Amino acid sequence: MAVGLLLAGCGGSSDAPVTATSHSPTGSASPTAQVLELGKSELTLDAGAVRSPDGFAPALELEVPAGWTSTHRYADAFDVGQADPKADAPLVVVAVTTAPEPDADAALMAVADRQRGADLTRESGDLLGSPAHTLEVVGGDGPAYSSRDGSIALDAVPGYRLRLLATDVAGTALVVAVLVVDDGRIDDLLSQAEALVGSLHATET
Fold this sequence. Notes:
Blueprint lengths: L3 E3 L19 E2 L6 E2 L3 E6 L3 E4 L8 E5 L4 E5 L3 E7 L6 E9 L5 H11 L4 E9 L2 E9 L3 E5 L6 E4 L4 E9 L2 E9 L5 H14 L1 E3 L2
Parallel strand pairs: 1-13, 2-16, 3-5
Antiparallel strand pairs: 4-7, 5-6, 6-16, 7-8, 8-9, 9-15, 10-11, 11-14, 12-13, 14-15
């Protein structure tokens, strides 16, 4: 069942791409990490280590700050975000997904092909200790990206911004999407998203 995540507007400006800091490819899992339960519901997360749902490969762990939740948790994609207390919408979402395309380059190329009329910016970065590429979509419209099984789907909206970071891990294209809703706090929310993406690391199973 596809879950549509509407891209929220990002006003202001930020030239820094959403990139991850370097980590060893595989690390030990935290014994106190909260394992995300499969399903769709608003799940409150404790501050600290959070582990990807059962069946998600590669097995991942990341650090979330206080006040974050998870809504979608499947074998091909999961998300963490900060809810808007004034509306039924998030302030910021980080979606961690596996792509249907054979590799990371193909995954980002497919997004670019769907959004030919958008303002597209490509950069390089780092994810899970490996080289990665970023794609930012501004001013797009309609379907942009869907995870491998369609559990999380991302639509571009005119004037809105989507940032994708992609790398290949053990034959799987891993795509991390960052969405920022509150344009009045873009620098703060992007900073939080960058720290969270930078904390991502694969764990031994």
